[in-house]
Amino acid sequence: MSVRGVVTSYNPHKGWGFIECNGQDVFVNKKECGGFCLAKGMEVEFGIAQGDKGSHATGVRVLATPEDTLYHGEIKSFNMNKGYGFIGCDAFPEQDVFVLKSAIYGGFAPQGALCKFKVTAEEKGPAAADVQLLGAASEGYKGFGKGFGKDMWGFGKGDMWGKGFGKGKGKGGPRVDPSLKVWIGGLPEGARWKDLQEHMEKAGKTKWCEVFEGKGAGTGTVAYTSTEDVAQAISTLNGSVFAGQSIQVDAWVKAPKEEA
């Protein structure tokens, strides 16, 4: 049975988000989207399945006009000298999508890079437009060390970037995939990391927790062992009460350009 809902959040870099349906948030992973890339406010049709972590969307179908439809893809090839290449996408199983250098933000797309894009219908087949690289590949045109902070990622000098873009100067901590981290805001003065870790483990097993001090007072971050636990934390602990104060729990991002 299919139902309809509206995407309330979706991070294309991490490939997951939430769909609101009948007053409840349903977790959605990009592998259930058939090559389509979701965006906040988008109307979708989907099935619902139950798992260990709760309900999740299956067989997602985007209900958008062709000009507003976004796709997830992977750069299959790109010739910088000729200025064009091809994108593989599950939504176009019979033909790769042609892409010109001029359609790519930054003008370059390394082979194997993940991306999101729109499509225009051309005489010889689909052509990509508004191509944006995702994940690690997107760092190629962000400028790396120009103020993004010398934190665990080692990208220059400055404050650590977190949700809220620079709300905190952390000590660093171990190297952790950003998709396994959550940002926490609204922490009360004097909050201890051990108490916060205990609170956050209501959503899943954590492997690291930090409460920021100084400029980042009132914020922190927690790393989980799986993206499912990250989604569970955002879904269930955002707005929860910790040490007598309501806290915010959201996806960790490194720079203003990364947005759901």
Topology (SSEs and partners):
Layout lengths: L2 E9 L4 E6 L2 E6 L6 E2 L5 E9 L2 E9 L7 E10 L4 E5 L8 E4 L13 E9 L2 E9 L47 E5 L7 H8 L5 E6 L7 E6 L2 H11 L3 E2 L2 E2 L1 E4 L9
Antiparallel strand pairs: 1-2, 1-5, 2-3, 4-7, 5-6, 7-8, 7-10, 8-9, 10-11, 12-14, 12-17, 13-14, 15-16
Strand content: 35-45%
- How many independent structural domains? 3
CATH fold node name of the largest domain: Alpha-Beta Plaits
Cα gyration radius (Å) = 20 Å
Instruction: Give the name of the CATH superfamily of the largest domain.
Output: RRM (RNA recognition motif) domain
CATH class of the largest domain: Alpha Beta
Proportion in helices = under 10%
Intertermini distance: 28 Å
Derived structural class: mainly beta
Net shape = globular
CATH architecture descriptor of the largest domain: 2-Layer Sandwich
Sheet having the most strands: 6 strands, antiparallel
Give the oligomer, counting copies of the same chain as homo and different chains as hetero: single chain
Q: State mean pLDDT (0 to 100 scale).
A: 81
Q: Give the count of helical stretches.
A: 2
Low-confidence stretches: 141-172, 254-260
Beta-strand segment tally = 17
Can you write the helix and strand succession as a string? EEEEEEEEEEEEHEEHEEE
List keywords for this structure.
single chain, 260 residues, mainly beta, OB fold (Dihydrolipoamide Acetyltransferase, E2P), Alpha-Beta Plaits, 3 domains, 6-stranded antiparallel β-sheet, 2 helices, 7% helix
Please provide a brief summary of the model.
The chain is mainly beta and 260 residues long. Helices cover 7% and strands 40% of the residues. The protein folds into 3 domains: 62 residues, Beta Barrel (OB fold (Dihydrolipoamide Acetyltransferase, E2P)), CATH 2.40.50.140; 72 residues, OB fold (Dihydrolipoamide Acetyltransferase, E2P); 106 residues, 2-Layer Sandwich (Alpha-Beta Plaits), CATH 3.30.70.330.
